[in-house]
Amino acid sequence: MATTLRNFQSEIEQIHNREFAKQKVNGAEQLQKEQKYSQVKGKAKEGAVIELAKAGTEELRDSAEAEEKILELLSSKVSANHDSARDILAALLTQNHGEYVFRIGAQPSKAKLFAGDLDNDVAEDWSGIERTEDMSNFLLQEITNTVEEVGGKTSLLFEAHGKHPRKSLLLRLPPPSVSLTPEVRCAVVGNVDSGKSTTLGVLTRGALDDGRGRARVSLFRHKHEIETGRTSSVGMEILGFAPSGSPILPETTISNDTEVVRREKLGWEEISVQASKIVSFIDLAGHERYLKTTLYGLTSGAPSCVILIVGANAGLIGMSKEHLSIALALSVPVVIDMTPANVQAETIKQVVKILRSPGCRKVPVFVKSSEVAVEIATGFGKEKLCPIFQISNVTGEGLGYLRTFLNLLPSSEGDTDKFAVDQPLEFSVTEVWSVPYVGTVVNGIVNGGSIKTGDPVMLGPDSNGNFQSTVVKSMQRKRAPVTTAEAGQCVSCALKRIRRNTVRKGMVMVSKSEILPKATRQFQGQVLILYHNTTLQKNYQAMLHCGAIRQTVRIIDMDHPQGVLRTGDRATVSFEFISHPEFVKEGMKLLFREGKTKGLGVITKLL
């Protein structure tokens, strides 16, 4: 079963990538046609910045090469070389979305560092140019001054003395406005009572927990959540990092009064204005009763990574395994937090065993130093690594490493394969509100293209598959007003002349053009049945999750020779939406469930 799942997942990825590559080419062509009629403003300036990046790094494709070149120029102490180093540094920062981890001195082999087998005396374990302590300190000062000249800030992430002196620095340019602040979306999952909300409360408020869940009180949205201590809705929390790399936290007092604790938090606007990077946490429910809400949060929120919280006294039990399998099925990188307790050794053994199993194929890395946290964050998602943080919300142990890791994660909108700006607008609706004196407000993620206030857009499909035209009145990002948003960003838009009851989650907003968007009622997909205790036949109904869409579907046809599907079977299945058509595209991943998760797949054809 594990081998089948592994092969199927790689096939899904291939279909997904192939279809999206086709759509990108078609989208770019469509956008060019649209741009012939309307001139796009503000792109000239952007082009100039990109040209600067290209000019500065034409011969320096490799960032390690660029680092060595900068260090060489700065150590020569010649003013002309200093200017060249500044230009390369500016280009390096521009290319990396205003954030770069710069390393001074010989660097250890990552494989040995993550495995904890690093040997100072083995030359093969080290690469790069050795620097003395004095030279490292001189270069640190020079880089700090040079970064300040281009308007950035430098912070020391990690330094080591001894045989191989080395330093890791974070170079960061403050974003010019809130609309350009990089954001990382993290979904937080785990079994009921594993400490998800408490961990988030400690991370975003700075005050430690009292062992009785005081830290989580400020996160709850409903009265029944405070009374039971259980999250039942999709909560959103943000943690901002200043240009210096330090977390932006409120002033807290030690109080047992829940009202005082709830009030002690910084507003999202305050955090957004000060922050150079924002980590958005999607706090999901752990209880089995709320699995559909958790699934919706995982599929519609487009998280860059999933943080799975494991109570070290309980281990990977119940819904933790379900959440882990969903994250793996959606190919989202996983981070595991463990809250320390007495039966920890057993839990660690169990977690490592599950991660190494054929179904997961992950390499567990225990993060016990700042250096490991820095190195694993900068290469996160590219390799099959799964960082494990052992933290305590009461003593604060391990929280520093987790904050360092979150601070350095690559931003969600930086993933240009997933979110392309050079495409027509596509905005998926994940939340809808009616705001007094404003009207209907939709919240969601820009999947492709860009959107500005005043843009005419089409919203739909409605129950008949039609799209209605509207205009974006105003926009907010993290509760701060913005005028533009680009692919990969999560924004709220107020819409003109749209009634609240005509909008639902799962709708899309697309740019108004000659080519009308099409709603789909029936589609075909490649699916794998993960678990079902009997057989699936024609007319079987299940709840389908596909991006922000959540609707019951019916199986209308399947190509299986026996005409029935059992656990572990693969087939091409035709589905039909029960209540209304939806906007779906070939290559989109889907999950369907009836109670627990039953199967996963990919859309291959629209019928």
TrEMBL record:
Pfam families: GTP_EFTU, GTP_EFTU_D2, GTP_EFTU_D3. InterPro entries: EF-Tu_GTPase (IPR050055), EFTu-like_2 (IPR004161), GTPBP1-like (IPR035531), P-loop_NTPase (IPR027417), T_Tr_GTP-bd_dom (IPR000795), Transl_B-barrel_sf (IPR009000), Transl_elong_EF1A/Init_IF2_C (IPR009001), Transl_elong_EFTu/EF1A_C (IPR004160). Residues 181-413 form the Tr-type G domain. GO terms for molecular function: GTP binding; GTPase activity; translation elongation factor activity. Keywords: Elongation factor, GTP-binding, Nucleotide-binding, Protein biosynthesis. Belongs to the TRAFAC class translation factor GTPase superfamily. Classic translation factor GTPase family. EF-Tu/EF-1A subfamily. This is Gtp-binding protein 1. It comes from Lentinula edodes (Shiitake mushroom).
